[in-house]
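Need tokens for this chain, all 456 residues.
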Amino acid sequence: MTDGPRSASRERLVDGYFARRTIADLAADLRARRVSSRDLVGIALEEAERSQSAINAFVTIDRDGACATAAEADRELAYGVDRGVLHGVPMAVKDMIDVRGQPTTAGSRHFANRIADRDAGSVARLRRAGAIPIGKTTTHEFANGPTGDRSSTGPTRNPHALGYIAGGSSSGSAAAVAAGIVPFALGTDTGGSVRIPAACCGVVGVRPTQGAIESSGVYPLAESMDTVGVLAGAVADARAVLSALIDGFTARTEMTAVARVGWLSPQAFHPAQDSVVRSTRDLVASLVTDEVDLPGADELLHTYRVIQGREAHGVHAERLDSAPELYGSEVRARLEMGGAYTNAQLSQALSVREQVRVRAAQLLATVDFLVLPTIPFSVPALFSRRAIIGDREVDVPAGLLALTAPWSLLGLPAVSIPAADVDGVPVGLQIVGRAHAEAELLSFAAHLETQRPERG
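Here are the structure tokens for all 456 residues:
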């Protein structure tokens, strides 16, 4: 694949303190008093500040608030108040999600001075579980782009190769985890905005079933598909966070039965790079029980564009009229294109979505999980917008969304896990499950995690 200037920087910055420490490790150290929450938060703040000029993972770093919360967490643990495995552990929050007293800029000049007066529902839940936000992470402008290199505060760079995209729109959250700045972070996912950066940055990214996580305090992109998601260094860490976010979530630790696994050819959705297909297929080859297809797969990216486009334009119509110059040109053009879809086109797209929803449910009645690459090509260089796969030129943003947007459209849970490295950068495997089957999905993901070759 040709995805831009291959002279782009390959410098890596993935050696932060939290890069190889799980939440369970941190919890054990806290309770054995080998470390304090103030220590962990101090390390996270130092890591964030040390790497900021190189990666640009953060929009805001809340040193005073995080340190004060850490001191309170230490006092609680000393007096026997234990909120669970996340108690005293630092985290980061995408700048589409409100954290009280902190800016929520949404990566936009429109919201440069917007301060949240309360926590989003997801942040409030994690605070009750004892987690400590250290700052807000960079997002593609208004979360409306899969590359993560268009924001009012500049592009996020991939910690595995600084000249390459981190993926979007939850670019800063994925980069912060990959760099070892924090053990986990919150993102949002509308068409792949957690899974795409997870794949690009070599971390775990979970999009839950539509509506499973409280959405209050999250600035919308396209409300019928928006959801809060989790980025973490390991499946067990993502599972711990989801336990705090989803009512009734069962943190199943291992598969209880042999899974039926269906391989979905990515070429049914979009042209795909041979080395990416091969590396992801290799990870699941011994487990695949069926080669499956989803009728209508080739219609889903267009269907997503119409529905997402109309919904996003509705959110922004007034600002597009009153202050169009405050948008970046790429995002403004995307919003205007969304507004140009007719009611007839929207009606047709909604009809296609319902038809494919039925087909997907029928398919998931025959297998437990669907597996395919998270993105169909290796990580592009920063600012790339065209790529060559074989002898075909493709649009980079469309390609990044091609394998993730279908499951957003259908409201299904999906997880991206690191599968291998291709061209020196990470490649993600995507696993899709039935609605509300997050526990089973993560159990299978954890099993695959043990099969992955160690990175060099």
